[in-house]
Design brief:
By secondary structure, the protein is α+β, with helices and mostly antiparallel strands. The chain has one domain (52-313): Clavaminate synthase-like (Double-stranded beta-helix). It has seven helices and 15 strands. Strands 1-2-3-13-5-15-4 form a seven-stranded mixed sheet, covered by helices on one side. Strands 12-6-14 form a three-stranded antiparallel sheet. It has a three-stranded antiparallel sheet with strand order 8-7-11. Helix 2 links the parallel strand 2 and strand 3 (90-93). 33% of the residues are buried. Mean pLDDT is 92; it is low at 5-9.
Length: 318
């Protein structure tokens, strides 16, 4: 290196702040240990006696073996399924060759059924049908919690696949109690008591004519829910915002609201809080919509994938 080159190198101005070690961006996301509690604090694991439970992860997801949903569910079996449902947040049942009527009957065990105003229907208006192929692309590949734009979002859903693609088409769920547990204390303090607005307009509204949109906005006004809801059965705090339907935080300026929401949305993407289910024909998933978000991978185009969902009306979040 010549003396001239050395001089140029030594005197080159360091004009960008990021080249200085005095600049460190403030980022909440850090690696390391995660808090992964499947049960509420103080709760003890109990054995299951009426079926076999095969956990698919440390906090969320389990396959249930030894239950035939084509047969009536006894009160004792229902009680034990409910306990597993609350513990694992999403339950999977394989090889369930059931009819639409039996699908509806199982969902009705958990409460009044919902009628979705925007999605295609199955045999009845309580069944939502998702039929994807070369002409209809899967659009559910965004992290979301179902119908949070309702005053009473869903309690849960029962999804059955009757046709599966040769590859792909998995669904992922994310435990939003784990997402909340792992937030930094300063973020927990910041969002404590805040509420957010949920609206169908940015998603389902895009497919409606202006006249139809105006009608539906009157029928389904935007809903206001706490950012952190208390699970009505377990008592756990869960993060209750999602990128599909949560549009802003009440009381914050738009820029601050969006920055905070984007950070909270990202918590669903953390793998330690997730379970990924590979579907087979006649598989069923039953999930707690109060405690989870989900994401249907759209990686099977142009292959066919057919699913039917029945959802149960829930409570008003608090």
């Amino acid at each position: 290196m010549t003396n001239q080159t050395q001089t140029q190198t030594q005197t080159q101005p360091q004009s960008q702040d990021y080249l200085s070690r005095s600049y460190y961006p403030k980022r909440y996301n850090r690696g390391g240990k995660r808090i992964l509690n499947r049960l509420p604090e103080g709760a003890q694991e109990q054995p299951y006696t009426l079926f076999t439970v095969k956990p698919l992860g440390p906090v969320i997801g389990a396959e249930i073996e030894g239950v035939d949903l084509s047969q009536p569910v006894s009160p004792e079996l229902q009680k034990e399924i409910r306990r597993a449902f609350l513990e694992f947040k999403v339950l999977f049942f394989r090889n369930q060759n059931i009819t639409s009527e039996q699908h509806l009957a199982f969902a009705k065990l958990w409460g009044e059924l919902e009628k979705h105003p925007f999605l295609p229907q199955g045999n009845t208006d309580e069944v939502t049908r998702f039929a994807k192929d070369a002409n209809v692309t899967g659009m559910e590949n965004v992290w979301h919690t179902d119908v949070t734009w309702r005053v009473n979002p869903a309690f849960g859903s029962v999804l059955r696949l009757s046709e599966v693609p040769p590859l792909g088409g998995d669904t992922l769920w994310s435990d939003q109690a784990a997402a909340y547990d792992n937030l930094p204390d300063e973020v927990k303090e910041r969002i404590d008591g805040l509420k957010a607005i949920h609206d169908f307009t940015p998603s389902f509204g895009r497919a409606l004519t202006p006249e139809r949109l105006a009608e539906k906005q009157i029928e389904f006004p935007a809903a206001e829910h706490p950012i952190v809801r208390i699970h009505p059965e377990t008592g756990r705090k869960t993060l209750f915002v999602n990128a599909a339907f949560t549009i802003r935080i009440v009381g914050l300026e738009p820029e601050e609201s969006e920055e905070l929401l984007q950070y909270l949305f990202d918590q669903a993407k953390i793998p330690e809080y997730q379970v990924r289910f590979h579907w087979e024909k006649d598989s069923i998933a039953f999930w707690d919509n109060r405690a989870t978000q989900h994401y249907a991978a759209s990686d099977y185009f142009p292959n066919r994938r057919v699913a039917e969902r029945v959802s149960i009306i829930g409570d008003i979040p608090f």
